[in-house]
Amino acid sequence: MEPVVAVVVAAGSGVRLGGRTPKALRFVGGRPLVSASVAALAAGGADAAVVVLAEGLQDDFQQVLADATVPVRFVVGGATRQESVANGLAAIAADPELAGCRLVLVHDAARALVPPEVTARVIAAVRAGARGCVPVTAVVDTIREVDEGGSHVVDRSRLRAVQTPQGFDREVLVEAHARLRVTGEHVTDDAAAVEALGWPIVLVEGSREAFKITEPFDLAVAEALAGGR
Ligand code: CTP
Ligand code: MG
After folding, report:
1. Would the pTM count as exceeding 0.90?
2. Domain coordinates of the chain in residue numbers?
3. Which atom of ligand 1 is nearest the CA belonging to 212?
4. Is 10 near ligand 1, meaning CB less than 6 Å away?
5. What topology does CATH give the domain 4-228?
6. Per-residue pLDDT tens for 125-176?
């Protein structure tokens, strides 16, 4: 089967979570978020990982990923998530052992508890021909759109929340990022960049457990969930 490489972006500063330790090195279920994320992706079918980290943290990351079950490479990230993903893609292209991977996943290290079956569904969709695939969940709250004139309820049955890992044909994702560099556009997610090239995005079922650990509340929830596994 075609090998899958995962870009795990972990170069953010974790301002909303707070604390002195960088977010990706905070513990959940007895290990750092970034270790849990790489293990989760490997369990779902990723064959290798490129971890994108903040300047100066390479030694710490190497240490906490020393026992990873798949080969892990490291690269320094950029000022935005988008730049960090681009750096991860460049590291794949420059690595003779990874440059043969046609399938790539992009994952937020902060979604440390993503169940293996979510990753497996994304990989399966890309193997089946999707150029881009994202896991989604239904929106459970009533949503109001707010504007200058007031607000109105949006039909939530038509809305989906988008998670990671997102899966791509690597060449298409590289082209999408090259285009962003030229146009200067910013996207919040890689699938949007691929969509801008004209490719349809395939949706697969995500999981509420793939939520992004963003604020202290999320870390507390993650800790409780990890304890129950
Ligand atoms: N990320 C990254 N490079 C950046 C910004 C974000 O690799 N320049 C990564 C984060 O490490 C995280 C993921 O993108 O795994 C999603 O970002 P987010 O949850 O916003 O994390 P942070 O940017 O670290 O948090 P905050 O926005 O609260 O500072
Ligand atoms: Mg951020």
Report:
1. yes
2. 4-228
3. 19
4. yes
5. Spore Coat Polysaccharide Biosynthesis Protein SpsA; Chain A (3.90.550)
6. 999 999 999 999 999 999 999 999 999 999 999 999 999 999 999 999 999 9
